[in-house]
Specification:
The complex is a heterodimer. By secondary structure, chain A is an alpha/beta fold. Chain A contains eleven helices and 14 strands. In chain B, strands 1-2 form a two-stranded antiparallel ribbon. In chain B, helix 3 packs parallel to helix 5, helix 4 packs parallel to helix 6 and helix 7 packs parallel to helix 9. The longest helix of chain B is centred in the N-terminal third of the chain and has 25 residues. Classes of the chains: A alpha/beta, B alpha+beta. The interface between A and B is large, with 77 and 49 residues.
Chain lengths: 354, 249
Amino acid sequence: MLSFRRAIAPWVVFQVAIFAAFSFGMTYSRVALGQETKPTSPQKPNEEEIDPGGIISVNTTEVLLPVTVRDREGRIVTDLTRKNFRVFEEGIEQPLSELSLRQVPLDVVLMVDASSSVADNLDDFRRAAEGFAQYLASDDRISLIQFDDRVVLLQDWTRNRVQFRRSLRRVAPGMFTRFNDAIVLAAREQFARGIARRAIIVLTDGIDSGRGTTFAVALRVALEAQATVYVVSNTEIERAKKESELGSLLGATTASVRFNQIQIDDLRMGLEALDASEKNLENLTNATGGRLYRPRSFGDLDSTYAEVANELRHQYALYYSPANKTRDGRFRRVSVQTEPAYRVSARIGYYAPK
Amino acid sequence: MLIRILAVCALASVSALPSAFAQQRSEPLTNAAVIKLVRAGFKEKTVIAVIHSRQNRFDLAPDRLIELKRNGVSENIILAMLAQDESPIAAGDDWGDDSFFRGAQKPTEEKSNDKPQAGADIFGSNGSSRGQTRGRGRSGSSEGDTLTTGSATVRILKPPSEGGGGTAKLEKTPTLDNESIVKLVDAGFSEGTIIKRIEDSPVEFDLSAPKLAELRKHRVSEPVIAAMQEAMKDDSNSKTSTPGRPKEN
């Protein structure tokens, strides 16, 4: 009896694996085919029942590249097909199959820097975040992280708008900014599993006061997690405040300028820190295929988050099977080309599995 | 000789006291520390004052709340911990007698180069202050006397880069489910405390008919059940799928 069990067990496991792979393939084929004939299908009950975290191992050979295409005026281009794209890995063109463009649900981590630079405007963030959630499709998931001197997951993955709205109430003002730590933790822990497109949207000035984790590490981990990072930066708002304050201090009498020298130096250093931070944020968003938004006031957050949502909704999910299948854990540089008149935003590459 | 050695030892231990105390003060308050204070016989008001004046790393998962209660921590203290956990840097002084200053103070959090807003506020610091100014003067006259009394506590908070913030970890807000509510009820928490916890937590309740019956069987009150239902209201079904995404090839 025991030997029979030993003999039969691998066969059963094999059958289950085949069935799982087949079901997964059918699900996606259905999604793909369904979209051609019925682009706004309201319900996908089969997908609702599938835990995205449970099926990651099925399709590890493919690379998913979320791609946004804009025209010269910056408008998002939405009518491209597979034939309009060419993908290069380390300079070598990669073949694109019939199923290279698919519809993929979105997992988005919304992050908020609750330090002093944003703390007074958390209500603006709450309103904008709530508006953003309205744009998500029913199969998309959202989670919420607040960071200051701590990094706190206020809401784990949910598709429930009420739970998300409730979690926004838990955002509380804090102090300091563990920005790099927050990116690392969000990318590593929230994107440890799953097959969806992955996005991080973070409201911050990006000036890190954390301990040890460098920007380079944060960028690497974001790339490892294949997350697209969008930053809604309040650097422009901070800069305007500081410049105005500096202007009024420098416009005073010589004696007053001398008296306020420490504050003047402090403001100048603050402006330099904002410039340096913006460069980092630009690098992070460009490398991960996201975008840096710099609203001029907190009142603009609604429209900014709506713009991010619009970009995510119109992102192409481009799949390809890399010709180089070596599992060496190395970084592979990738580029995407389309019509010359258009500008492409995509991740600069990926880390091969080990 | 022995007397001299003893004297040196005594001197060394006395001189070490302030630094040990300062080190303890800079460490965040934990559940265990609150239990210690309660067991040491501190009054409720004093423990709450300590909770309000210190940074904390409370673990307020339902099981930990029950543990606190079983260790004799009163519900008022637990509520203070819950409130402090929501706004860890807030400098409130709810127990004060002076109604003018009560509730008037906003939490003040400043980065190094931001301007101060209220209270005693220096670089990397946040504190609470209470004061009172009485003036007596005659209109149209320069005569009069002013009496200013006040007290201030300043808490020095170092940035994580200086303050030994330790390795960062993703802190997860505990999710409440049916079982955790039953545990809170069994532990004797009041309806108000449980409802507040529901309002402030991520939740994952099963409110099907059999589960509701089970909750009632475990003496979960109707207002608590109503709060659970309110927290689970779901509007996600009203949303349609995937509008405006690019077509597949």
